[in-house]
């Protein structure tokens, strides 16, 4: 032997790390799995949080209609030019409004006829994706929603006719009929407040005759608007003020895009808060298992550490060894976890953002990966902090004596006269390493308790309660203008024609029906009502109201001063009348159907407050007082709650801006007074067997005959709700299942390592006479003890958490609390089976070596 | 002769009151450089505890240990570790080889832990003397007990320590192999002028040493 050994590359700690890592494959597998799961959950949560944030901002942009930072409505083209020239202004988009399209088929959807430059169109999410912006007077571009409503195929070159009025405040103004050639279109978004129909500058100038308005005059024809894009999103208001000062345009009114407001950021944080909470839980669960794994491996390797310590390894070198092992495990677990987590997140995003139209964009922000990796790594490092310190502290002499118990404990042992029972031994064995037992039980219990809580919270939701407030019938059809808050409701609308109503009401399966008519008039009210109004709207309430609706407060003062306001009278029968007069919705007085149908009584609609909320009076005419409407007097029978399906809807077209009081009359009385008014809403219930037939009939009708017919069905409401809440349900269940899984992994790992590390001990007790059967039984008892303690704790804590925490959390709203521990009932047998199976399988494995072999083991 | 190791009033007590165990009860011992000393005693006589004290593995309750001019009691755990790997070579009853390292790596392990470069010529000389040259790439598990103990001897010698402490080096070996191993230990010690302190309960093995110290009940009974 003369060959010299190459020692240059020999780094003892590195070499040992490498080889120990390779040697302990099964142990590594468990650790890698734990790290992988932790990373996976972090990545999933980060992906979801990021994507939700992104989608939320996108959605707000679409709702506000544009993504530029600010907009100005009272500005002249000359001023706009000055603004555009400022160095801080990135882009300036311009538009001229002509009017609103009033084609019958567009009922309920606002379509604005405008000219805009490319920048304005692009920042309004309304740049043609097919074709181009209009250039000549005959051309127009619009979104697919408008095209669909008008029944025009998505093809450039199609003829489109738009109807509009130059003066929208005058219902009798002569409508303009203009035919255009479609030169471009784009995918419309339902969540936007309006659709755009772009026309050329040439057409716009011809219509406005070059007269641009700056929003100060009445009407919208020729209204000139700009959108200002800045380079930075920070402190938009200050930036705008500075730009205005620089351009000597101080005082120019502008609006900051709501999507950029700090409140939006706060909302985004609020929406994603559950994710961060989830991350904290994952952190705890991840810590519990990774800590346990390292604790176990350090305990198993104590002798080894003691050995290398006697040979001269310092504390630091031993810690380095453990961190080295942890890092190697991370190098496998984290990347795989990142990929799987992102995929899982991507799969879950659509479920989470179901509410967002055209949403579901999955974020691939680098922060997701760096953040998750950092979090997972931090979890691992924190988890091995203590084990590493323990290993470093191993005293060489102690190491030679140490076995798999945490600290040498001198306990007084009770001696039973009948000898040690197997179950007793099993119980004692659990106590040998208390820390580990506690860790495993905590980790399992955490998963189970979370699962119970999420489940209880989700089941507490009461769909019936929710639907009862939002819909009162299986189907609700309305006049196309019923929800037209801009143009106003047309009391002589033709959407719900006689033929349609008759066909629906006689359709097979229709059980009950109901109707709503409405009429608006100016109403002079009495002194008592004035007092009631003053009594209800206290200064504090008015101040609060003024914060979000100063115009409303002005209208209130005007009403009180003049004793005059708008009255909307609904004529109701059948379903809506029955719904609104249910005892829980009668706020004051009482309802007597027979007397009411006589025509001398009226119902006043009260404010949307629960149980009077401590208000001394309601701001409506008192029960028993007389209300005179267009010459006819009625006695107020009761005050009812403004039930959404009955009360919701736009004011009548052309009505003056004023405060509104709603009343309810029987249909017959209403029809006598205002025979010209057509049906506003039709309600009907269908038996379950015919639900689908009716739905299909309506779908076909709205697709082919009248695209503007607004249909609300109970089914679609339920689906909408599910889409809105799926996120929390999926989220909660995913987190708790993964945490429970981590718990099970922890349990399996602890059981397996505890058994394997005691191979010699088992051989010893077998050699002194314990039979295979007895040993196996003892191991199974140990597993059962684990399971039993976990279950008892889980039941106790879950019962408490569900009974107190969840009960409090779900109070109010659309929920009915039900005490349930169903997830625990389901998990109980599963856990018990695991508790039986794992020791049994381990024991089989153990048996493959003879007693002598195991006794000899080092 | 120069004294390389000296203990003064060395005591190690465990527990207190009724359960007080006096593992060492006042040991004054001087060991000269280059000598092969055997410490003998029955089980529980305190000889292993004494060896741990000499190697700085355990802290005395009272008294001091001075190795080659260094007062071990003054060192903290980190310093003690570093002192140990530089100045003391250990040979254990159960060899204490690192199972994942091969023979060569085991031999140079304490030196490399210290960040030093092994003196290759010297180590190869030791290896040849111990007859391990064909086993350098083997893992400890593939060696016989005698071979493993020879690796441990090589490891103890490799760092040229001030003193080699051997704790029952023959305990796990049959008589013949045990004799061979101690023979080798004595031979290499003489060859490289090493001071060796060996613990044994076997009087025959002890006879091979230059000097025998007998411990009983934590005290030196005869020397």
Assign a percent range to the helix content of chain A: 40-55%
Strand content of chain B: 25-35%
Placed side by side, the strands forming the largest sheet of chain B appear as 6-7-8-3-9-10
Greatest chain-chain contact: A-B, 30 and 36 residues
Shape of chain B: globular
Distance between the termini of chain B: 17 Å
User: In CATH terms, what is the fold-level topology of chain B?
Assistant: Rossmann fold
Residue runs with pLDDT of under 50 for 5 or more positions of chain B: none
Oligomer: heterodimer
Question: Radius of gyration of chain B, Cα only, in angstroms?
Answer: 17 Å
Task: Look at the structure and give the mean pLDDT of chain B.
Answer: 87
Beta-strand content estimate of chain A? 15-25%
Short characterization:
Chain A has 858 residues and is α+β, with helices and mostly antiparallel strands. In chain A, 53% of the residues lie in helices and 15% in strands. In chain A, a hairpin with a 2-residue loop joins strand 16 (626-629) and strand 17.
How would you summarize the topology of this molecule?
The complex is a heterodimer of chains A (858) and B (223).
Chain A: H1 12-23, H2 25-64, E1 70-72, H3 77-85, E2 89-100, E3 111-116, H4 118-123, E4 130-131, E5 139-143, H5 144-150, E6 159-165, E7 175-186, E8 195-199, H6 201-208, E9 223-230, H7 236-246, E10 255-256, H8 262-300, H9 302-310, H10 315-352, H11 366-393, H12 396-399, H13 422-432, H14 434-459, H15 463-470, E11 475-478, H16 498-505, E12 510-524, H17 527-536, H18 539-548, H19 550-562, E13 564-574, H20 575-580, E14 586-589, H21 593-597, E15 601-605, E16 626-629, E17 632-640, H22 644-647, E18 660-666, H23 667-673, E19 681-686, H24 691-705, E20 711-713, H25 714-757, H26 759-767, H27 772-809, H28 822-847, H29 851-856
Parallel strand pairs in A: 3-8, 5-7, 13-18, 15-17
Antiparallel strand pairs in A: 1-9, 1-10, 2-3, 2-9, 4-7, 5-8, 6-7, 11-19, 11-20, 12-13, 12-19, 14-17, 15-18, 16-17
Chain B: E1 3-14, E2 21-32, E3 36-40, H1 47-54, E4 62-67, E5 70-71, H2 77-87, E6 88-91, H3 103-113, H4 120-130, H5 145-158, E7 163-167, H6 175-191, E8 195-200, H7 203-206, E9 211-216, E10 219-222
Parallel strand pairs in B: 3-8, 3-9, 6-7, 7-8
Antiparallel strand pairs in B: 1-2, 1-4, 4-5, 9-10
Helix pairs in contact in B: 3-5, 4-5, 5-6
């Amino acid at each position: 032997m003369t060959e010299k050994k190459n020692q240059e590359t020999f780094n003892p700690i590195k070499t040992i790390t490498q080889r120990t890592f390779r040697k302990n494959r099964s142990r590594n597998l468990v650790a890698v799995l734990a790290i992988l799961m932790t990373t996976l959950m972090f990545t999933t949560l980060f992906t979801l949080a990021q994507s939700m944030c992104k989608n939320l901002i996108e959605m707000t942009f679409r709702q506000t209609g544009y993504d530029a930072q600010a907009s100005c409505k009272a500005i002249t083209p000359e001023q706009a030019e000055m603004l555009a020239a400022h160095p801080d202004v990135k882009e300036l988009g311009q538009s001229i409004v002509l009017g609103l399209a009033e084609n019958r088929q567009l009922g309920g959807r606002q379509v604005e006829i405008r000219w805009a430059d490319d920048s304005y169109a692009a920042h309004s999410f309304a740049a043609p994706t097919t074709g181009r912006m209009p250039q000549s007077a005959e051309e127009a571009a619009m979104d697919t929603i408008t095209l669909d409503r008008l029944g025009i195929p998505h093809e450039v070159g199609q003829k489109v006719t738009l109807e509009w009025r130059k003066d929208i405040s005058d219902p009798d103004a002569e409508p303009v009929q203009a035919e255009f050639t479609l030169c471009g279109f784009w995918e419309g978004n339902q969540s936007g407040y309006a659709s755009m129909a772009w026309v050329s500058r040439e057409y716009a100038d011809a219509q406005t005759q070059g007269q641009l308005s700056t929003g100060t005059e009445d009407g919208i024809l020729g209204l000139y608007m700009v959108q200002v894009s800045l380079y930075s999103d920070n402190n938009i208001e200050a930036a705008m003020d500075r730009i205005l000062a620089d351009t000597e345009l101080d005082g120019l009114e502008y609006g900051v895009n709501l999507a950029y407001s700090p409140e939006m950021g706060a909302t985004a944080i609020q929406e994603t808060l559950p994710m961060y909470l989830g991350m904290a839980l994952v952190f705890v669960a991840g810590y519990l298992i990774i800590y346990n794994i390292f604790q176990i491996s350090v305990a198993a390797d104590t002798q080894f550490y003691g050995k290398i310590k006697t040979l001269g390894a310092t504390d630091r070198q031993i810690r380095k060894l453990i961190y080295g092992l942890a890092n190697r495990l991370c190098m496998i677990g984290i990347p795989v976890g990142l990929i799987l987590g992102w995929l899982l997140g991507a799969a879950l995003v659509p479920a989470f953002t179901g509410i967002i139209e055209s949403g579901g964009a999955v974020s691939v922000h680098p922060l997701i990966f760096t953040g998750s990796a950092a979090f997972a790594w931090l979890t691992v490092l924190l988890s091995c902090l203590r084990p590493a310190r323990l290993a470093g502290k191993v005293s060489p002499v102690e190491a030679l004596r140490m076995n798999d118990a945490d600290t040498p404990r001198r306990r007084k042992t009770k001696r039973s006269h009948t000898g040690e029972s197997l179950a007793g031994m099993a119980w004692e064995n659990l106590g040998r390493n208390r820390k580990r037992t506690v860790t495993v039980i905590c980790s399992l219990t955490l998963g189970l308790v979370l699962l119970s809580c999420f489940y209880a919270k989700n089941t507490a939701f009461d769909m019936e309660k929710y639907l009862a407030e939002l819909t009162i019938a299986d189907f609700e059809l309305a006049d196309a203008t019923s929800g037209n808050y801009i143009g106003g409701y047309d009391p002589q609308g033709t959407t719900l024609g006689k033929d349609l109503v008759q066909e629906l009401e006689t359709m097979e399966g229709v059980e009950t029906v109901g109707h709503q008519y409405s009429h608006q008039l100016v109403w002079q009210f009495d002194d008592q009502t004035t007092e009631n109004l003053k009594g209800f709207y206290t200064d504090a309430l008015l101040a609060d109201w003024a914060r979000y609706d100063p115009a409303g407060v002005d209208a209130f003062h005007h009403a009180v001063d003049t004793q005059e306001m708008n009255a909307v009278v609904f004529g109701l029968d059948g379903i809506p009348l029955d719904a609104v007069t249910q005892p829980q919705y009668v706020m004051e007085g009482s309802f007597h159907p027979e007397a009411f149908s006589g025509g001398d009584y009226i119902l006043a609609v009260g404010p949307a407050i629960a149980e009077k909320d401590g208000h001394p009076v309601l701001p409506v005419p008192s029960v028993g007082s007389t209300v005179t409407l267009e010459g006819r007097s009625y006695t107020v029978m009761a005050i009812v709650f403004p039930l959404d399906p009955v009360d919701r809807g736009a004011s009548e077209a052309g009505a003056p801006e004023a405060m509104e009081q709603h009343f309810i009359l029987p249909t017959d009385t209403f029809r006598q007074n205002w025979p010209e008014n057509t049906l506003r809403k039709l309600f009907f219930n269908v038996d379950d067997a015919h639900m689908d037939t009716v739905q299909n009939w309506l779908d076909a009708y709205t697709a082919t005959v009248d695209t503007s017919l607004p249909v609300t069905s109970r089914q679609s409401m339920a689906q909408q709700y599910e889409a809105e809440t799926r996120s929390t349900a999926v989220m909660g269940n995913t987190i708790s299942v993964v945490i429970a899984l981590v718990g099970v992994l922890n349990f399996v790992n602890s059981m397996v390592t505890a058994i394997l590390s005691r191979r010699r001990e088992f051989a010893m007790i077998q050699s002194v006479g314990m039979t295979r059967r007895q040993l196996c039984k003892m191991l199974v008892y140990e597993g059962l003890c684990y399971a039993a303690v976990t279950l008892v704790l889980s039941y106790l804590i879950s019962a408490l958490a569900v009974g107190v925490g969840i009960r409090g959390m779900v109070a109010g709203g659309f929920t009915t609390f039900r005490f349930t521990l169903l997830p625990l009932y389901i998990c109980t047998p599963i856990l018990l089976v695991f508790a039986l199976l794992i020791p049994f399988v381990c024991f089989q494995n153990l048996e493959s070596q003879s007693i002598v072999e195991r006794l000899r083991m080092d | 002769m120069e004294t390389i190791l000296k203990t003064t009033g060395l005591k190690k007590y465990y527990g207190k009151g009724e359960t007080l165990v006096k593992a060492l009860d006042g040991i004054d011992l001087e060991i000269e450089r280059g000598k092969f000393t055997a410490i003998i005693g029955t089980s529980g006589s305190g000889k292993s505890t004494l060896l741990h004290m000499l190697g700085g593995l355990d802290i005395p309750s009272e008294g001091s240990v001075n190795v080659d001019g260094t007062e071990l009691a003054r060192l903290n755990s980190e310093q003690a570790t570093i002192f140990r790997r530089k100045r003391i070579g250990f040979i254990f009853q159960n060899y204490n080889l690192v199972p994942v390292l091969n023979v060569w790596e085991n031999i140079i392990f304490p030196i490399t832990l210290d960040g030093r470069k092994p003196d290759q010529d010297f180590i190869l000389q030791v290896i040849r003397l111990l007859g391990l040259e064909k086993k350098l790439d083997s893992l400890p598990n593939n060696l016989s007990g005698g071979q493993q103990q020879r690796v441990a001897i090589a490891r103890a010698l490799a760092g040229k320590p001030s003193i080699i402490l051997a704790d029952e080096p023959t305990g796990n070996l049959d008589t013949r192999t045990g004799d061979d191993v101690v023979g080798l230990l004595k031979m290499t010690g003489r060859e490289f002028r090493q001071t060796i302190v060996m613990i044994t309960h076997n009087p025959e093995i002890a006879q091979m040493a230059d000097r025998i110290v007998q411990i009983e009940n934590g005290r030196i009974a005869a020397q």
